[in-house]
TrEMBL record:
It is a multi-pass membrane protein. Pfam families: Cation_efflux, Nitro_FeMo-Co, ZT_dimer. Residues 307-393 form the Dinitrogenase iron-molybdenum cofactor biosynthesis domain. Residues 18-207 form the Cation efflux protein transmembrane domain. This is Cation diffusion facilitator family transporter. The lineage of its organism: Archaea, Methanobacteriati, Methanobacteriota, Stenosarchaea group, Methanomicrobia.
Amino acid sequence: MAVKEELRAGAKASRNSTIALIFLAAIKGTVGFYSGSSSLIADAIHTSMDIFTSLAVWVGLKLSLKSSGEHFPYGYYKAENLVALFVSLLIILSGVELVREALSTIRDPAEIEFQGLALGAAVFSVITIYALSQYKFRVGKEIESQALIADATHSYTDVFSSMVVVVAIIGSMLGMPCLDSLGVLVISVVIFKLGISTAKESALTLMDAWLDRDSIETIRESVEHIPGVNRVDDIRLRRSGLVVFGEMQVESAGECDLKRVEVLSAEIEEVVKGEIKNLEHLSVDVKPGKMSELRIAIPVTGLEGLQSKLSRHIGKTPYYIFVDMEDNKLKSWDVVENPAADLERKRGVKTAEFLEEKGVNVIIVKDIGEGPFHKFHDSFIRILGMPDDVDDVQALIEMIPELDVIISPTE
């Protein structure tokens, strides 16, 4: 589901909730007035306050639907987080109100007429508000809306408030009007905990905190497995309403041109989208990796080690010598037979695949066709030009810092 569609679904849920609450408040207020149930009237007033909460969530989600403008280049998505914070404060106030009602009930028990009617209205209120809370919570979780989830939590606390009214009416019917007091005090503690938790999450989100640290490590591991990525230096994510914005700094496996950077950035963004729902934008900064350790492939005609004669061919050459260097100093070398030398077709490409499997990051050649060039290029293998006046490997190694980089096919 697209972000705009999710926002519309959330706004629809808030609108439906507002209509249901208006209907419910009218029923409880009317029955409470005729039955003389002060707790039912108080609950009706409480529900009337909830109407404004649902309206606030609806307004927040509708604001999030607005397109970005000059003063809000990142859109109005955080309006949803502001509303979530507001609703969480109302949840805490609901807990205060429940405590106040409990203490009031202890001091001044209410005498209720039409007790059956009042009890029926209170039970209907419990069922309706519970259904509303589950409806909003389901939609909120589906679209990951903090405001709607907070409003659902608020409605869930109202279920307890309405249950207190049921208990109060039953207690009145049994001649024990103070039965609900202890339960209200316990419930208020739960409500405070829910409100504080929601307020904390909303405030941290508004401050661009990212709370899911596991997702950062999962993204890091996934991106570092992309061919061409040497390591991930930094990942920054922030939630804005339903959407996520991110920044990432990676080090490529060697130098790469702008076109390859663009392709690599797109690959990284696809990987991150697979981990993070509703990723709106990801800025990727690709920095070329420092190649202090080189594994150089050089085509040769024989098995004479560093005295081997150079070959001017990529695919036809019978052997390759692999030279390992660190900080421009020779560490080791090894001569290996080219398994693609006797192939009739695609010798160059198959040779390139063979060298990639061997972990080569530099190759020195005289001429190179399009197939092997693009294979080396896409694998972040640097291609250096072989001079005409050099015959053996030893002399070529001494000239490596002076060799030119080949940036396009030469055949």
